[in-house]
C-alpha cells in the first residue's frame, strides 16, 4: 500500500500543475465603462477574486462542505472513514466525503458519474491541485466553478442571478441560502422550490452559529430576514443596445481571429464606443415617432465623424422579435441620399453651386437605343433652369440624371468608392437617383467623410479588449486620418446640403427639409431620400452623423403619409436631443473658399431686390461675377423713398454689378 501510494504521488507530481482555466463570461462596456452586456455560452460564469467574495459566504461553504479544508492535503481521512462506516451500516451510499479540493477537481476536469475510474482520476487531480497551488487559490477556484442551477456557475453569477447583487454584497441570510444550493441545484433552487431552499438555509445558519461564525443575534436577524429573489428581467441581466452588441461581437472575433463561441466564453473585457445617452435617445425617439400598430421597420446609426466611433445603433424596432440587424445586414436602395456623391464628382470636375440646368420632363436616349425618362417627385418641374444649390435642396431628379450622364455613370461609381461605399454599384443613369442597394452603415460612413472635411472614416465599435487577467490584447490606435476628398469641395458640398432646410431655395416645390426645419436649433447638413419601399434621412453636424432608414422588410410599398415622414422626424428629434449638451459648432470654410450672396434662382450676385438670396460658397476664382438682373429692387424708383436713401445708390450699384 505504501509503494502504491508513493507511486501515485510521484505520478501526480510528474504530471505537473493542472490548468485552472474554464469558461468565463465576456463582458461588454460602454465608452463610460458601464456594463452594457454579458455574453456567455450555456454556462453563466464570472470569475472574482477570493477577497471579493462575502466572508459570510466563504464561512458558509467551509462549514457545510469541508470544515478542515485548510488542514488536509486534499483528502479528509476522518470523514472518509466515517462515511464508509455509515454507508456500510445502511448498506447504501448515504453520505459522501468529498473535500472542496476533490469537488473542484471534478468540476474542472471530470463528470459526475459514479465509477471507480472517475474516483481514481478525481483523487489524482486533487493531489496535483494540492501539490502545485495554494489553499486560497483552490478555494477561489472552487467558489468560481461550483454549479448553482439555472445555468449559473460560481458565486458571482449566482449572486447576480438570485439577488441581483455582487458576491461581496451578500447578507448572512443570502450567503446561507446560496451555500445550500450546490447540494441539489434543482431541488434547492429558491425559484423552483423556495420551501426546500429555506429549510436548508435555516440548517446552515444553525451550523454557522454552532461553530461560532455568527452570533446568536446575527442568527436571529438572519432567520427573520425576508429575502428578495430577483425578478425575471433582473435575472436575465441588463442588456443595453443588443443590436450594437452583435456588431461588437462580430468585430471582436475578427480582431482576435477566434470563433464566436471562443469569444463569449473566454472571459474577455470588451470596451466599446457606445454612448448610452445617445443610444437611449435613439431608441426612445424611434419608439415615440412610430405607431405601435405599424409593422414598418427602422434602422439607424450615429457616428462621431472625426473618429468613426459608432455611438448609437438601432437595427430594428424589437430585438426579441427580430435580431436581424438592418444597419449592417440589410441593403436597400438609397434613393436621393446618393446624390451628394454625384455632386461631389461634379464639383471636382467644374460645377459650382451656381451651375444652371433645366428642370423639365426629359427623355434620355441611351447608347443601346433605349429611352430613359425619369421624373421628379409628384411630377413637379421648374420648366426652367435651376442652380445646383436648388437642385440639391429640392432633390431634382432631372438635374441629377443630366449630371450623371454628362460625366458618365462610371465616374459616380468611382466617386462613391472614395466615400467608402463598398457595395456593388451598377454604372447606369439611374444610379444618380440611388437605385443601387447599400447598407445604412455605408451611407453613414460616406456622410461622415463630408462632416469631417473630407478625411477617411473607419466606423468601429471597439476601443480595447483585455483577457480575463486584464492583459491588453487589442487597443485601437489614434492615427492621422487620410485626406480622401478635396477639403474645399467637401465644405462647399456640405454647405449646399444645409440648403435642404433653407426656404430661400424654394422654387417649383419647397425644400425637402421644410417640414422639420422648425424642429432644428442649429446648423445641420443633410439629405432625404425615398423610393416606393424606402425612406431615408441622413445628416450631420460637425460633431455627429446620423443615418435613419425606415421601410418594410419584404419591400412592401410605403403608402401612408405618416410612415413616409418617420425617417426625417426620427432624425430631427434625435439630433436635437443629443446636441443639447454639445456646444454649437458651425461648418468652417477652409482657405481658398469665398462667400457670395447669391440669388437662388439665377445663380448670380444678389442685390437688395432679390428676395430669395443665400450666402453661398465657391472655390476662389469660380464665384459669379455678374449681378442678378432678374429682380429689380422694389423701391429703386419709388418717388416716396427718402431722397438721401435714393441717392445713396447702394441698391443701384448692386443691380448694375459695380
UniProtKB/TrEMBL annotation:
Residues 299-574 form the Penicillin-binding protein transpeptidase domain. Residues 637-658 are annotated as: Disordered. One of its GO terms (biological process) is regulation of cell shape. Its main location: membrane. InterPro entries: Beta-lactam/transpept-like, Glyco_trans_51, Glycosyltr_51/Transpeptidase, Lysozyme-like_dom_sf, PBP_transglycosylase, PCN-bd_Tpept. The keyword Transmembrane helix does not apply. GO terms for molecular function: penicillin binding; peptidoglycan glycosyltransferase activity; serine-type D-Ala-D-Ala carboxypeptidase activity. Keywords: Carboxypeptidase, Cell membrane, Cell shape, Cell wall biogenesis/degradation, Glycosyltransferase, Hydrolase, Membrane, Multifunctional enzyme, Peptidoglycan synthesis, Protease, Transferase. It is found in: Cell membrane. It catalyses: Preferential cleavage: (Ac)2-L-Lys-D-Ala-|-D-Ala. Also transpeptidation of peptidyl-alanyl moieties that are N-acyl substituents of D-alanine; [GlcNAc-(1->4)-Mur2Ac(oyl-L-Ala-gamma-D-Glu-L-Lys-D-Ala-D-Ala)](n)-di-trans,octa-cis-undecaprenyl diphosphate + beta-D-GlcNAc-(1->4)-Mur2Ac(oyl-L-Ala-gamma-D-Glu-L-Lys-D-Ala-D-Ala)-di-trans,octa-cis-undecaprenyl diphosphate = [GlcNAc-(1->4)-Mur2Ac(oyl-L-Ala-gamma-D-Glu-L-Lys-D-Ala-D-Ala)](n+1)-di-trans,octa-cis-undecaprenyl diphosphate + di-trans,octa-cis-undecaprenyl diphosphate + H(+). SUPFAM superfamilies: beta-lactamase/transpeptidase-like (SSF56601), Lysozyme-like (SSF53955). GO terms for cellular component: outer membrane-bounded periplasmic space; plasma membrane. Residues 39-208 form the Glycosyl transferase family domain. It comes from the Bacteria. In the C-terminal section; belongs to the transpeptidase family. This is PBP1A family penicillin-binding protein. It comes from Salinibacillus xinjiangensis.
